[in-house]
Q: What sequence folds into this?
C-alpha cells in the first residue's frame, strides 16, 4: 500500500512525476537500467555528460573501491553530441522516459556549441551543465572552482538556449564557498544547481606503491561523501532560498533522499547506489514516500528545505 | 552497439553449498529459473558484506557450471579465490545464507556450429568457466583439449568430474609443483599443430590472454578470450571496465568488458594499449 503523498516536483519550469533521478555518469544513457525497471518510473534519466566530439576517456584502472564509496576516473568517455542526439535521446523518449542532458566542454565556446545542438532537439526536459568534472588533466578546466568562469559558461549556454529549457549548473564541493559559486551561476541565468559532483581523491596501490588509478586522481562518490553533499545543499539553500536544487552524493536509501530534501533539494539523483543495486532508484522512491507520510507530509514540496525553518 | 544481456535479472539466491577446494572455494547458489539463460562465459554480480557493509560495489564471478534439480531448482557453481574483503566475505557464507545477485551478465563464449578441435586454456581459477564450456562443446561433437596453468599446484582448479569432459588435460606450474614446469604458453605452438586446433578459448590473467593471442594469431587460430578488468557495476553503466578494441576498419574504441565482453575476440583487443591513454587513436 502506497501512502497518499504527492511526489511530483519541479526544477525551473520542468515538471517531473517523481523526485528521483539518475546521476549523470552513473546510468550511461539509460538502456541498461531499463532492463531492471521502466525508466518512466523515475523523474528523469540524467545522461552521462556528453562533449562535442567522441572521447575515449582515461586509461584503466578507472576504479577503486574505498570505505563506503569509490573513486572513478572515467574522463568523460562518450560518443560525442551528434551520435548521442541521433541514437540515445530518441531511444529514451520512445521509452516514455524524461531526459535531462548533461553537457561538458573544455572551453566556454564548446558549451555554447553543445547548447546550439540541444536547442534544435525536441523532448529534452532540462540541461545539466557539468562545469565540475574532476577527471580532467588541468584543474584550471574545472570551471566551477571559480565564480567568473562558471558564470561565463552559464551565460554562454543561456544566451543560446533562451528561456525555454531549464539549465542546471553542476557544481563541485571542492571550493571554499559553494554558495558564492551558486550565486554567480544563478545571476548568469542558471535556473537551478546540481549539487554535488564527486570529490577529488586518490588511492595509492601498496603493491606498485604508486597512485592506483590510470588518471592518478579520481572522483570520490558514494555514502562517504553524503554529509558533504547535505552541507553544500543546506548552504546554497540558505543563501539562495528560491534557487531550485537537484541534490546528489551518496544517496542509497529513502532516508538519505529525505535528508537532502529537508536540506533544500527539490529532486535527488542516485548514482553509485545503482552500481551496487540496479533497482536502487525504485526502492529509494518507495522508502521516501513512506518516510514523508510518516512525518505528516502530503506532498514532497512541503518537505523541501524544511530543515531551515 | 552491444546491449546488456536480455536475460539479466536481480534475484535473491541461497547458498546451497560452500566447500574449500585447494586455494579456492566452490560455492553453489540456487538462483531459480534464471539459470536457463546462463551460458558458459556469462558471469554473476553479487552484493557482498551484508546490510551494514562499507563495500558499496558488487563482486563479479564467472559462472563455472549450471544445473537444474528438483530439490534446489536452478543452481550455479562459482569458483572463488578469497583474495579481497568481498570475496572473503562470500567464502564465509554458509549453507542457507541469502545473497543478492544479478545474472546472467555479459556475452558468453561463442560455440562453433560444426564440430571443431577446441583448445581450452585456463590460468588459476580462470579454468572455472571452461569446464561448463567443455561439456557444451563435447555435446556438439567437438574435440576438447585443455591446458591449465598457475604459479603453483594449489592454484590449479581441475575437479575430477571436469577432467571427464575433456579429451586431454595438460597442467603447467611455474614452480613445477604440479604437472610440467612452465606456463600455459610454453608448448602452445606445438599443441596447436599436433592437435589441429581450430579454436582457442581462454580465461585468466590479462598477460596470459595477451601471450595466447600472439601465438594464436601466428597460427591463424580463432581465439575467444574471457577478459578480467575491474568492474564497479557489471551492468554497463559505470564505464570503468573498458578495454581498447579495434574494429574491422582498425578504429579503436573503449569497450565495456561487462557488456561487450567478458568474452572478446582476442585479436581485436589492443593488449599493448590496455592501461594506456588512447585519446587520439
A:
Amino acid at each position: 500500500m502506497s501512502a497518499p503523498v504527492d511526489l511530483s516536483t519541479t526544477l525551473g519550469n520542468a515538471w517531473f512525476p517523481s523526485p528521483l533521478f539518475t546521476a549523470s555518469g552513473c546510468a550511461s544513457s539509460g538502456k541498461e537500467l531499463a532492463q531492471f525497471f521502466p525508466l518512466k518510473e523515475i523523474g528523469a534519466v540524467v545522461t552521462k555528460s556528453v562533449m562535442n566530439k567522441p572521447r575515449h576517456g582515461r586509461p584503466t584502472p578507472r576504479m577503486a573501491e574505498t570505505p563506503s564509496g569509490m573513486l572513478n576516473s572515467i574522463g568523460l568517455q562518450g560518443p560525442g553530441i551528434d551520435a548521442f542526439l541521433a541514437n540515445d535521446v530518441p531511444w529514451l523518449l520512445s521509452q516514455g522516459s524524461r531526459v535531462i542532458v548533461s553537457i561538458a566542454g573544455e572551453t566556454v565556446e564548446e558549451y555554447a556549441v553543445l547548447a546550439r545542438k540541444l536547442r534544435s532537439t525536441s523532448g529534452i526536459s532540462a540541461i545539466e551543465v557539468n562545469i565540475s568534472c574532476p577527471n580532467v588533466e588541468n584543474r584550471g578546466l574545472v570551471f566551477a572552482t571559480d565564480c567568473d568562469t562558471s558564470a561565463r559558461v552559464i551565460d554562454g549556454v543561456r544566451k543560446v538556449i533562451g528561456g525555454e529549457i531549464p539549465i542546471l549548473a553542476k557544481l563541485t564541493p571542492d571550493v571554499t564557498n559553494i554558495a558564492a559559486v551558486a550565486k554567480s551561476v544563478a545571476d548568469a541565468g542558471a535556473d537551478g544547481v546540481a549539487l554535488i559532483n564527486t570529490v577529488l581523491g586518490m588511492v595509492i596501490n601498496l603493491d606498485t606503491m604508486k597512485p592506483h588509478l590510470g588518471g592518478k586522481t579520481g572522483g570520490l562518490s558514494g555514502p562517504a561523501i553524503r554529509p558533504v553533499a547535505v552541507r553544500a545543499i543546506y548552504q546554497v539553500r540558505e543563501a539562495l532560498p528560491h534557487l531550485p536544487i537537484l541534490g546528489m552524493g551518496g544517496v542509497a536509501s529513502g532516508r538519505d533522499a529525505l535528508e537532502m530534501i529537508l536540506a533544500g533539494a527539490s529532486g535527488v539523483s542516485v548514482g553509485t547506489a545503482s552500481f551496487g543495486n540496479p533497482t536502487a532508484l525504485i526502492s529509494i522512491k518507495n522508502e521516501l514516500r513512506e518516510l514523508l507520510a510518516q512525518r505528516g507530509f502530503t506532498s514532497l514540496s512541503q518537505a523541501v528545505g524544511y530543515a531551515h525553518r | 552497439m552491444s546491449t546488456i544481456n536480455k536475460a539479466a535479472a536481480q534475484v535473491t539466491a541461497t547458498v546451497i553449498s560452500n566447500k574449500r577446494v585447494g586455494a579456492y572455494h566452490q560455492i553453489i547458489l540456487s538462483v531459480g529459473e534464471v539459470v536457463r539463460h546462463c551460458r558458459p562465459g556469462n558471469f554473476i554480480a553479487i552484493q557482498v558484506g551484508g546490510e551494514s557493509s562499507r563495500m558499496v560495489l558488487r563482486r563479479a564471478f564467472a559462472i563455472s557450471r549450471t544445473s537444474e534439480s528438483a530439490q534446489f531448482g536452478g543452481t550455479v557453481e562459482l569458483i572463488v579465490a578469497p583474495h579481497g574483503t568481498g570475496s572473503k566475505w562470500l567464502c564465509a557464507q554458509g549453507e542457507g545464507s541469502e545473497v543478492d545477485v544479478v545474472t546472467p551478465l555479459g556475452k558468453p563464449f561463442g560455440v562453433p556450429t560444426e564440430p571443431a578441435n577446441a583448445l581450452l586454456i585456463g590460468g588459476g581459477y580462470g579454468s572455472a568457466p571452461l569446464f561448463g564450456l567443455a561439456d557444451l562443446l563435447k555435446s556438439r561433437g567437438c574435440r576438447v583439449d585443455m591446458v591449465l596453468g598457475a604459479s603453483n599446484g594449489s592454484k590449479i582448479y581441475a575437479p575430477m568430474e571436469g577432467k571427464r569432459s575433456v579429451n586431454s588435460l595438460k597442467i603447467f606450474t611455474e614452480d613445477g609443483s604440479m604437472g610440467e614446469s612452465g606456463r600455459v604458453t610454453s608448448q602452445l605452438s606445438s599443441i596447436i599443430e599436433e592437435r589441429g586446433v581450430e579454436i582457442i578459448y581462454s580465461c585468466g590473467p590479462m598477460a596470459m590472454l595477451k601471450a595466447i593471442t600472439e601465438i594464436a594469431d601466428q597460427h591463424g587460430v580463432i581465439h575467444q578470450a574471457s577478459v578480467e578488468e575491474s568492474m564497479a557495476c557489471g551492468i554497463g553503466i559505470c564505464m570503468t571496465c573498458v578495454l581498447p578494441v579495434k574494429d574491422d576498419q582498425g578504429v579503436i574504441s573503449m569497450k565495456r568488458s561487462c557488456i561487450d565482453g567478458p568474452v572478446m575476440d582476442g585479436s581485436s583487443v589492443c593488449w599493448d594499449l590496455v592501461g594506456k591513454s588512447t585519446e587520439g587513436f
